Amino acid sequence: MPLALVALTLSTFGIGTTEFVIMGLLSDVADDLSVSVSGAGYLISGYALGVVIGGPLLVSAGIRLPRKAVLLGLMGIFIVGNLLSALSPGYEVLMAGRIVTATCHGSFIGLASVVAADLVEASKKARAVSMVFAGGAIANVVGAPLGTWVGQHFGWRATFWMLVVIGAIGFVGIMVLLPAQRGAQTAGLRQEIAVFRRPQVLIALAMTAFSLGALFTSFTYVAPLLTEVTGYASAAIAPLLVLFGAGLVAGNTIGGRFADRALLPTLGVALAALTLTLALFSATAHNKVLAAITLVLMGAAGFATVPGLMTRVISKAEGAPTLAAVVTVSASNVGIAAGAYLGGLAIDAGYGYTSPNWIGALLAAAALALTILSGALEKKPAPQTTADGAAPEGAAVRPGTSG
After folding, report:
1. Span of the secretion signal (predicted)?
2. pTM for the whole thing?
């Protein structure tokens, strides 16, 4: 694999750490800035909003620029956002820093996925994409715990200074290692938007939203489930989350490797495994050993879908994949937010902390059904399309290719 992928992975590691680390620092931030813990929790909501809205807007603005230049610009925004957070005198400036940082999240990951797929031959595209997402997965295992430890021992601002350094290293790595000649963008904004008329692109986006929504419907409420239902002490949650993160890394790696061989079958197997694991979690949650094993399997099955889903979107948006890749990240965040909301409704309705698992299983089953539908449509003849998604006049009809 090209060394440039290492620079992209390090950058997504920094971005993933920025997203997750605030969860472990909420009490420290709340005490220091004299706000409530729930008020500090809005820093998470603000970040999510920045991801969903900011990513497509930023990439749309730079759609005609060379991809390397855009990636460097996005890492520059990442550095500025974390600098703003580190230097923030109060809550409002910290919120602004979080939102600024979030705007580069989806745009960087989406564009980096397109660039990664372009750097390798066709047989390794999903593995290259998996390396981009590996940074985010490793952030769960290493970055967030490390950032939390730094913040607790040296003050929460020290964590953001650490992220500034990681961002600067990623910036230099991209500048030195990523070949400029592989980054030219030829499609304009009209062509990028037009690919959303392609049914397979829309199905792939829906698959992403349902798949990630399924995983995080359960994971959002896993801490109270493990303490209130399984019987773990609060001190055991951090090591258990590291196990979950290890499952994410393993699933992402395995999913990328097998998706290069057979993309849709890999997605089908992973989603079936996720559906089954989430359904079983309501039963295994009552046993400490089985709950820990299920947590790892849930992470592995959930992230085994990620490289294939992004590769699917990129391939089906062929000719103008950049905006579609970025919207894929936004779709995943919409799914995560919706899943967390539905899980909260079930708990508030009195169905208990295991109820989000059943909702997650239903969402995973919906993603599996969409995968089957996508495969069925693939077997039907489809008209040729231009880069802007329209069928040329008099175009011949050709059979679709398999995932």
Report:
1. none
2. 0.79
